[in-house]
Every structure is written in structure tokens, then in C-alpha cells.
Amino acid sequence: MNFLSHFYFDRDATNCYHILGTVLPDLLKNADKSIILHPEKLHHPDSRIQSLIGGWQKHLDVDRYFHSSDFFKHHSHQLKLVLLPALVGSPVKPFFLGHIASELILDNLLLTTHKITVDGFYNHLDSCERGIIYEFLIFSGMKNPDVFMKFFEGFKKSRYLHTYIDTAQVAYALKRICMRVWAHPFTPEQEAKMGDIIIAYRQLMEPTFMDIFDHISNSLAAQTN
């Protein structure tokens, strides 16, 4: 799941460090895909750092339930199929695109149906102290936390996730993600075709998209009982 979908499960939480922890694995990948940390089994005496660790574990749990769900398997496959005509000549792998597209559409649907707000998400990130994040990264084994901290400040400043409320921008977001792997993933014509396909598929997903959030919420609740 993408940033805002992870935020949905803790949208009423008040602990900013927990919220940051729930999206930190993906933020680190975006900052530098070579970063590999496994803090989920560590314990720190500072409750704020422990909250980051707890949020990190929540991220892993949510992704596990999501990626094993019939909902994800169905929609990522269907999106792969409907996007294929727009990918002729593109180096992008259709399965990768179907996977990412399904996650971005879910973020868009959460925003456009007013289940969450982007500002609510960013307000939590802004509330986290730089020194606590830095200490968490050192404690988790990161050699050069400055790489992430520079990226994180830019991520907060850009407020980029506000663009996800515009369905037409989802194709652009897909291109940005693909550019981390392929320098020139799509032509302008391909991007335009993808935009039309995604707008149509979003309408198909809208009536039942909350099913996956209910499924994961129930799975998380069962896990703690």
C-alpha cells in the first residue's frame, strides 16, 4: 500500500512518531532504494523511538495482509491487462505497473471520498523532531542518516501527495515512480493513454474499494486478540 492508505488505519491516532513509522519503510526506499533496515524486533527505552518501531511493524503487517488479499491480486492483474495497450514499446514491466497503479488509485479514492485528508497526514510528519528520527535511524543500523533526512525535508516541503486527489495526476505519479527504475518509462502519448485508462478503472473500483480496508482492519484486530 502507498502512504495515504497506510495512514488510513491510524487516521485517528495522536502519536506522530507512530504515524511516521507506518510510512517510514516506503519513505526510506524512496530516499535510497539500497537502504535496508530491520528495526521491527528492536527495543529502545525512548518511547518516541519505540513508537517509530511499532509503526514500522504496523506497516509490515498491513502490507502482508494487502499483498496476500484476493482484492489486490484481482485488481493488480486487471490493471495490468487494461494498461497493456498503452505500454507498447515501453520498458516498464506490466505487472509492476498494475501493482503500483492499484495502490495509487486506492490513495486517490480515500481522498476523493473524504476518508482522510492529506493535511492530517503531513501535520503528523511535521510534528516529529528531527533528532528523534535521526536517533531511530542510527539505532536501526543506518550508516548515513543525512541521506534520508535531506529527502524527508524535501518530501514534507513539496506536499506532493496533494496531487493524488486529482485522478488525472495518478498517471503522472506512476511515471515518477517508474523513473526510479527506468530513465524514460513513457512517451507523452503513453502517459495520456494511461491517464484515460486509470480514470475509467477508478470508477470501476470505487463502489467496493473499502472492502480491502475493512478486510485489513479485521485482520489486524484478529491478530491482536
How does the overall form come out from the CA principal axes? Answer: globular
Helix content: 55-70%
Structural class: mainly alpha
The count of helical stretches stands at: 11
Count of domains: 1
Radius of gyration computed on alpha carbons: 18 Å
Spans with pLDDT under 50 lasting ≥5 residues? none
Residues in β-strands, percent: under 5%
Q: How many extended strands?
A: 0
- Terminal residue distance: 24 Å
- List the secondary-structure elements in sequence, H or E: HHHHHHHHHHH
Largest sheet: none
Mean pLDDT comes to: 94
Features:
Acyl carrier protein phosphodiesterase, 11 helices, mainly alpha, 225 residues
Commentary on this structure:
68% of the residues lie in helices and 0% in strands. The chain has 225 residues and is mostly helical. The chain has one domain. The longest helix is centred in the first third of the chain and has 21 residues. It starts with a helix and ends with a helix. It comes from Mucilaginibacter polytrichastri. This is Acyl carrier protein phosphodiesterase.
What are the SSEs and their pairings?
Elements: H1 3-8, H2 16-31, H3 47-67, H4 70-83, H5 94-112, H6 118-127, H7 130-139, H8 145-158, H9 170-178, H10 188-205, H11 210-224
Helix pairs in contact: 2-3, 2-6, 2-8, 3-7, 3-11, 4-5, 4-10, 5-9, 9-10
Protein name: Acyl carrier protein phosphodiesterase
Organism: Mucilaginibacter polytrichastri
Question: Would you summarize the structure shown here?
Answer:
With 225 residues, the protein is mainly α. The protein has helices at residues 3-8, 16-31, 47-67, 70-83, 94-112, 118-127, 130-139, 145-158, 170-178, 188-205, 210-224. This is Acyl carrier protein phosphodiesterase.
